[in-house]
Pyrroline-5-carboxylate reductase (Azospirillum griseum), 274 residues
Amino acid sequence: MSGGTSGAKLLLVGCGKMGGAMLDGWLASGVASHVAVIERAGLPDALVGNPKVSAATGPGDLPAGFVPDVVVLAVKPQVMDSALPDYRPLVGPGTVFLSIAAGKTIAYFEQTLGEGAVVVRSMPNTPAAIGRGMTVAVPNARVTADQTALCDALLRAVGDVAWIDDEALLDPVTALSGSGPAYVFLLVEAMAKAGEASGLPADLAMRLARATVSGAGELLNQSPQPAADLRKAVTSPNGTTQAALDVLMAEDGLQPVLTAAIAAATRRSRELAQ
Ligand SMILES: NC(=O)C1=CN([C@@H]2O[C@H](COP(=O)(O)OP(=O)(O)OC[C@H]3O[C@@H](n4cnc5c(N)ncnc54)[C@H](O)[C@@H]3O)[C@@H](O)[C@H]2O)C=CC1
Ligand SMILES: O=C(O)[C@@H]1CCC=N1
């Protein structure tokens, strides 16, 4: 690694929703000395002129002498097959390939890039855009302690990080925390619709649903109490919350729906690996 955990040289492949959010975090935290970006749609306008960022059309178009400490792979899994072979010339002990792609396994990267590839497979989520992401990461056998520390710093620049050894867990991780923000946004939509069905005007219902979910999320974030205790604190015996929870916590309530949803996403993550 050329620059310690501050001042690393990065190559970002794919600067869309996730890659762009992570890049913003690296620039704000100072973890990167320079980020070369390969993005099919071109460098986002906000980054043009940033002295720490340069655009490249492909791995053969990097600034002279630029050997990245980390190549962050942030293209869609379906794009990876055609894009990844071009990056074989960058494989070496000093360069980590850090993937955020759903379903793409360490074995896949080792097969496509070559056995010598240093690989970290990870799964972040979109709250990374406000520094509140949750990422789970797994290293392959070639990742050194310094490289783990560097990848940890990159991922920590956009939120919390958990390192695991069992790669198989990344499928349910993807289903829970990777896709999870979408479930929460759907909850807001569903609560607003339910409020409307109970007589609220649409705009007030959406305002209340949004404020309630984001406020409850922040309370959960700041409180040391378990989620179940925070739930009980809202619930008066025989009150309104209890009436709703009798529906939501029934045998055919929220739990079986969420269990089925997360099982479906876990299956899909496994399918993407085929
Ligand atoms: N959106 C999400 O919530 C999460 C996404 N991911 C993973 O992140 C990856 C990216 O997803 P998003 O950011 O949502 O997609 P996106 O579509 O917003 O970003 C992908 C970017 O890659 C660019 N691109 C396409 N082909 C390219 C190529 N050959 N070279 C360079 N750039 C190319 C596209 O123009 C696009 O800007 C996916 O693999 C996904 O599984 C992981 C966690 C959460
Ligand atoms: O939907 C997807 O496949 C990606 C992975 C996790 C979140 N979005």
About this structure: The longest strand covers residues 32-38. The domain at 180-272 is CATH 1.10.3730.10 (ProC C-terminal domain-like fold).
